[in-house]
Each structure stands twice: as structure tokens, then as C-alpha cells.
Design brief:
In chain A, about 80% of the residues lie in helices and about 0% in strands. Chain A is mainly alpha-helical. By secondary structure, chain B is an all-alpha fold. Chain B has a single domain (about 5-120), classed as Helix Hairpins (Orthogonal Bundle), CATH 1.10.287. Chain B is built from four helices and no strands. Chain B is elongated. The chains are: A mainly alpha, B mainly alpha. Chains A and B meet through α1, α2, α3, α4 and α6 of A and α1, α2 and α3 of B.
């Protein structure tokens, strides 16, 4: 029971932080709040037993993303977002989507129900066979690197493509600046 | 069904629509990308939270433990985090380029400049 309480408390803190982020116009403050949000997310993931995901979220979500956003803020010198006018339609759309999702969530099994389909379908097989089939005690590692190794290879292709795209976009920028100096 | 048993889903949905609202309503491109990030991270919770078992432990097989949380959502979300930071990096590089070309990162100003060019 204490597990659920910890998770719910962390989620409440995250909701609070995100609502402040939505209203905040100073972009530097938004980025730092985003870092806090990511660390809270990592803590919530530890409480949800997803330790591998929590480590990745703490290093990638709170670390690399924050650095990238601060770098972009420096390059764009965009300190303050402009106040915006007429925002009723986006609000209506968001609330409608939220209402549909809440309606859908009513059909989901309760939090941490051991008889939910997610727990009884294929997961027990992976947990039972991971040691004998792959020799790796960590089931997440064995699925990621062994059972679904090709998916992970595809993932590295995505990261490579994104990296190549970033370099292509920013190199052009440096070349323009060098031309100007000449 | 009770309030406590579904609270985690509903908090996740609030995070999700907050991200969606920022993406649609805010004109600043950096803020839009941050909203997209909030939307993305809320999906992590939507996947991982149902896999949790009270009294369970992280899915690392060891002596003396019988209940493990479901490892499969964790694997999916590990991939999603890495792909998420890749899209964020690409999006921010595009924002930097847009700022070079238009000297602003506000959506309505960019659209106005485009209209002036066209007419």
C-alpha cells in the first residue's frame, strides 16, 4: 500500500510542476522546471520498479535534454515567450481529449492488479526463461539486447539519422557565419 | 474501480493534456518542443504504471524473490526515451535554423513574415 502512496505523491508533484510550466513565460525557468520534472519522473519510475528506465530518464531526460534545451536557448536568445491571445479552442480540444482518455481509463484494470492481462499473458514466460535462455538475470537487458536485439539495432539507426540531421542543419549555419566574416 | 486504484492513470492523463495544450496553444517554438517532451514522458508512465505489482521487485532474477514487475513495458520505454531525445535534438536544431532565417522563434511572427514575402 505504501508503494502506491509514494507513486501517487510523486505524480501529484509532477502534475503541480507541469501546471507551473504551462503558465510560465520565462523559458529559462521552464527548462529548469523541466529538469525537476524529469528527476521526479525518474524517482517515480524507481518506485514503479522500472530501475533501468529510471536510470535512462535521469541521464537522458534530465541531463542531455536539459543541456540541449539550454544550448538552444543560448543560440536563439529566446528568453521570454510572448503572451498569447485566443486560447479557447486549444483548451477545448485538450479537455475533450482528456475526457475521452479518462472515459477509456475506466475500463482499465486497477493499479497493481496481479490478475490483469498485462501480468498474466507473456510476461511470466520471459521472467521464467530469461536465465536459462540468455544467461542474463536482468529480464529487461535480456529482452532489449537478446530477444529484441534487432529492434535495438533499429533504434541506433534512428539516433544516427537524428545526429546526422543535426550536424547537417548546424554545419550550414557555421558556413554562413564564416562567409559573413570574410 | 475506486479513486485510489485509478489515480495514477488520471494523473498521467493530466500530464498528457497539459503537454498537448502547450503544443497547440503556445506560439514559441522552444516551448512547443518542451510541451512535446511533457507529452512524451507522460506516455512512459502510461506504459510502466500498469506493469507494477505491489510487493514486487525490479525484474532482475535473484534468490529469495518471487514477485517481479512486468519487464516488457520497461524495454519499450527505454527505446522511447532514446528516440525522444533524438527527436528533441533534431527539433531544436531546426528551431536554431528558423531563428537564423527569420530572426524570431514565435510562430505568429514567422507566419506574418511568410505572408509579407508572398504578397
Amino acid at each position: 500500500m505504501i508503494d502506491a502512496l509514494v507513486v501517487n505523491a510523486l505524480l501529484t508533484m509532477m502534475v503541480f510542476i507541469v501546471l507551473v510550466m504551462v503558465g510560465q513565460r520565462n523559458l529559462f525557468a521552464v527548462v529548469i522546471l523541466g529538469g525537476i520534472y524529469s528527476f521526479l519522473m525518474a524517482t517515480a519510475l524507481v518506485a514503479l520498479d522500472a530501475v533501468d528506465v529510471a536510470m535512462t530518464e535521469a541521464s537522458v531526460g534530465a541531463g542531455i535534454s536539459t543541456v540541449l534545451l539550454l544550448g538552444a536557448l543560448y543560440l536563439t536568445r529566446g528568453d521570454e515567450a510572448k503572451p498569447m491571445r485566443h486560447s479557447t479552442i486549444p483548451l477545448i480540444v485538450s479537455v475533450a481529449v482528456g475526457a475521452a482518455l479518462v472515459y477509456g481509463s475506466l475500463g482499465l484494470p486497477a493499479f497493481s492488479d496481479p490478475n490483469a492481462p498485462i501480468q498474466t499473458h507473456v510476461a511470466p514466460r520471459y521472467l521464467k526463461e530469461t536465465l536459462s535462455a540468455t544467461g542474463v538475470p536482468n529480464a529487461v537487458t535480456s529482452v532489449l539486447a537478446s530477444y529484441r536485439g534487432y529492434d535495438t539495432l533499429g533504434e541506433t539507426t534512428v539516433v544516427f539519422t537524428a545526429g546526422a540531421g543535426v550536424i547537417a542543419l548546424l554545419r550550414r549555419r557555421r558556413r554562413i557565419r564564416e562567409d559573413e566574416e570574410r | 474501480m475506486s479513486f485510489a486504484s485509478h489515480y495514477s492513470y488520471w494523473a498521467t492523463i493530466v500530464l498528457m493534456i497539459a503537454g498537448l495544450y502547450v503544443v497547440i496553444a503556445r506560439g514559441n517554438l522552444v516551448k512547443k518542443l518542451i510541451g512535446l517532451g511533457i507529452f512524451q514522458t507522460s506516455v512512459y508512465l502510461l506504459y510502466v504504471a500498469p506493469g507494477k505489482l505491489i510487493g514486487g521487485t525490479a525484474p532482475i532474477i535473484a534468490e529469495g524473490y518471487r514477485t517481479y514487475s512486468n519487464p516488457l513495458p520497461h524495454v519499450l520505454i527505454l527505446t522511447a526515451i532514446v528516440v525522444g531525445v533524438a527527436t528533441l535534438a533534431l527539433g531544436l536544431a531546426l528551431v536554431v535554423r528558423i531563428r537564423e532565417a527569420y530572426d524570431t522563434i514565435e510562430e505568429d511572427e514567422i507566419l506574418r513574415l511568410d505572408d509579407e514575402d508572398g504578397s
